[in-house]
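User: Can you write out an input/output pair for a complex, sequences first and structure second?

Assistant: Here is one pair. Inputs:
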Amino acid sequence: MPDGSTSDAFVAFERVQKSYDGENLVVKDLNLSLPKGEFLTMLGPSGSGKTTCLMMLAGFETATHGEILLDGRPINNIPPHKRGIGMVFQNYALFPHMTVAENLSFPLEVRKMGKSEREEKVKRALDMVQMGAFGGRRPAQLSGGQQQRIALARALVFEPELVLMDEPLGALDKQLREHMQFEITRLAHELGITTVYVTHDQTEALTMSDRVAVFDDGRIQQLDPPDTLYEEPQNSFVAQFIGENNTLEGVVQEISGDKCLIRLDDGELIDAKPINVSQVGERTRVSIRPERVEFNKERLQEGAHTLKAEVLEFIYMGDIFRTRLRVAGNDEFVVKTRNAPDQVRLKPGEQIEIGWLPEDCRALDA
Ligand SMILES: Nc1ncnc2c1ncn2[C@@H]1O[C@H](COP(=O)(O)OP(=O)(O)O)[C@@H](O)[C@H]1O
Ligand SMILES: [Mg+2]
């Protein structure tokens, strides 16, 4: 896995900052490098600086400080048409006076490709986005979703080395979106294309990417493969932003090695793993995933601290049960259990005890 060193990187951001008004930094200190062939997603809330980073990489914006390198060379020395970058943006405009096939053929003509090769590539690109029958239509005769699929096909038709995509699937319905997520990743890997993908949809980021860079406030909060990101969030923002998460607040009472004892604000004690806390007396928010909470005492470790909980709501979801609890004053504490034949269905009003393995409960920044 890449370690952030930029020596053999295909794309590298080095201490990049960006300000539009000369005062406020919307990208604060971006260091990021991708090896060839990687599918990297920038994930974050609206306004966190994702599009700005993509525009700088594409060459439509310049960095205020720092450097962006493409294949080892500073990007500002390479003219845009020689960058070999395919782009799909949220509102990508197709040429309205050209048919779909002509739109796709255009980037190939620019590259002086022969007619029969062009036709073959256009056909393949159209099939790839399930639009094989639409080559003769004009963009105005297509739905928004269909236009976006054509825009995607046009970005991939010349098999660029680097593709940038900014929320390309936002306009598509759920089923087509999921199909396209699968198609985009399969294609990117098959063609060996390096991809920088932007989304605010965490499920999309987790399912598509080799690595995900979580953005907030112009900074990368964490950069990791999807499973590491979900299972080992390094701060409260990431824990909260990725997946469903239960949070309890308290103060560090003891720390020894990879365990700590937290006194919650209502006085109860719980075991946790110290991630982002280093001293006794420090305030912390502990984070525990809904599927890691246990209420079957036989499955808890000997001597583990448990908490009293009241069942507030039981929701049957088919494959899983989602139970909402009141825990240490928090009415939004959620437990998820698999719908197995012997699984208990908790009832509202029941008083139970819950616990977890200390390593599943992470003591993060307050
Ligand atoms: N062309 C621009 N001029 C001035 N401010 C901009 C411009 N584009 C984006 N911004 C601001 O920069 C910040 C980051 O925006 P953006 O990169 O679009 O975030 P994201 O794509 O994560 O939603 C926002 O506060 C936004 O208002
Ligand atoms: Mg954006």
